[in-house]
Amino acid sequence: MDEAKAQTQEQDLAVSPQDDSKSETSTIRYEHEPFELFQHKATTLAAAKFHRDRADIHVERMKGGAYNRVIGLKVRAIKPKSWGISWAQKYLRACFRRLRPETYEEYVVRIPRCEDGDIDRQVATLKAIGARLALPIPDVVSFDISADNVLGKPYMVQRRIPGRLFTHMMEGLNLEQMKSATKRITELVSEISSVTAAPGAIFLDNLTSSSGPVRTDKFSVPCGDTITATSQQPLAHPLEQCETWREFQKANSFCFEDTWDSFIAISKALEQRGFLKGPCVLVHGDLREYNLLAEVRSSTQVEITGVIDWDEAFFAPQFVAYCSPFWLWISEDAPSDHLDDEKNALEEPESIADRVVKQVFLENASAEYRRFAFAPEAMLARRMYYILRKGIFGDWSFREAEAIISEWDELHPEDDVAAVEYESDFDGVDSDTDSEHTGAGDEGDVDIDT
């Protein structure tokens, strides 16, 4: 399973514009206006928001993702009054640097592709995280959760973060630069997980509050009530999730009793072995190379300039956050499924360079991080927790749950967690739902015309 692929490597803040090929994928699939027409609405919106003339706005086509259409904006900075001291100083500096006096502020506009896009929750997440982490994350300067605007859709305007997507840089980095990037990426996980809160999704109240604890909602079932999350004992949270899904299934005339019983047994086994302890921490949800922006500073240094795509951020037990960045030391020639299966973190890297990169991780990760990263129990627990959050909808998630139980039983037969074998029966359950979560039908970058 790879939740990252489920998000189809969305590049909401990519710094390079879309190429000149005019694909109609976005227009056809989502019934969007073509960019040639939509850009005029974006110009009108930007001119009003930034109090500029339309001539001061440049709209740029950018690559979007499965969930958001993305448009770049360049807004001409307000010029100082002509012949003033400030103008003269700026003009002289520009002449010396052989630059034009004009400067531009850069932004991106994100528009949900679907009508049910939750812009308000996305903004609440960024505001909650931005107020508590000293990390370069998207800064929201304007948003509208309604369609009562010139775009006719909800939208969010963010400051554009400098840098290139790390996924586009990796091949060209030398070993010292890879070591530098690996050290920083390892540190990012510890910094992100320093924020604690009750387990759940980030609550909408964070739109207006940036002080005190982050408020969260309990993970809910489809069409269920929103319930404010409260602090729980470490074991109580996964047990509650099992019972929540059990009640939901019974209410819908089906229930995988044995699955939830097995997950309860696994949760108790995790607690006994010390994997359920401490507070619940912030989890990015998809901290991979395509959600990191970076810049090369020197022949030995790479700086991470941005951490993007926080749409899946949530609070969970620590073992969920401490997944290793194994993709840093997996060979480029490895099969595609190796690049997304964290069990391959246990294998010895093939090349000397990859072994060096893995060693950098080991030297910079805490003992706790290393344990959670490489323990087979923690890897299985992360897979189980995905289902505890998302539920069982369709054949993929059912088979995944079976596999988790079977693999735990093989690892620790003494725990006796294995469920009784039975055939899946999804009467009344939409089996297509799984593709939304697992990315079973989406491999690699999405090439969607914005």
UniProtKB/TrEMBL annotation:
Bias (Acidic residues): 422-433
Which intervals of the chain are annotated as region Disordered?
1-25, 422-450
All copies of the Aminoglycoside phosphotransferase domain together span 103-317
Question: Looking at the record's lineage, which domain of life comes first?
Answer: Eukaryota
Q: Where is the composition biased (Polar residues)?
A: 1-11
Q: Which Pfam families match?
A: APH
Alphabetized InterPro entries for the sequence: AGP_Transferase, Aminoglycoside_PTrfase, Kinase-like_dom_sf
Name of this protein? Aminoglycoside phosphotransferase domain-containing protein
Name its species.
Ophiobolus disseminans
